[in-house]
Amino acid sequence: MPRSRGYRKKTRSLLTKDSNDEQGISYLLREYNVNDKVVIKINPSVVKGMPHRRYHGKVGVVEKVMKRALLINVKVGDKTKKVIARLEHVKPLSG
Fold first, then answer.
1. What pLDDT sits at residue 59?
2. Which of 23, 61, 65 shows the shortest CA–CA distance to 39?
3. Whole-angstrom Cα distance, residue 56 to residue 28?
4. What is the strand order of the sheet 79-86 is part of?
5. What is the dihedral of CA 79, 75, 40, 33, to 10 degrees?
6. CB of 19 within 8 A of CB of 67?
7. Domain residue spans in the chain?
């Protein structure tokens, strides 16, 4: 049987929620503005609008605010990538 090379491969520990990591609904109601710094933190219970696992934990700058998602500029190596992620997978950078 050939090896699976799916979108979520090698994510067993990356895309698991902690049992004590409960959050309310307020994270969905946050408003973001252009040039805000955000962290891409994938919520594994929501598959829709999930960015690729290589961007998990990366810090980026909001370029465009859409109705249900954000366009984020993320620096990966020497390149700047544009990532579209829904609000469930983004949190503001603290500090």
1. 97
2. 61
3. 18
4. 79-86, 69-76, 59-65, 37-40, 90-92
5. -110
6. no
7. 31-92
What pLDDT, on the 0 to 100 scale, is given for residue 21?
A: 67
CA–CA distance, 63 with 34 (Å, rounded to integer): 5
Q: Report the C-alpha gap between 53 and 11 in whole angstroms.
A: 7
For residue 9, the model assigns a pLDDT of 84
- Counting as low any pLDDT under 50, the low residues of the chain are none
Q: Which residues pair with 86 in a beta bridge?
A: 69
The topology (CATH level 3) of 31-92 is SH3 type barrels. (2.30.30)
**How is the chain split among helix, strand and coil, in percent rounded to 5?**
10, 30, 60
Which residues does 81 contact at the CB level (< 8 Å), separation at least 6? 55, 73, 74, 75
User: Which tokens hold the place of 13?
Assistant: 């520990």
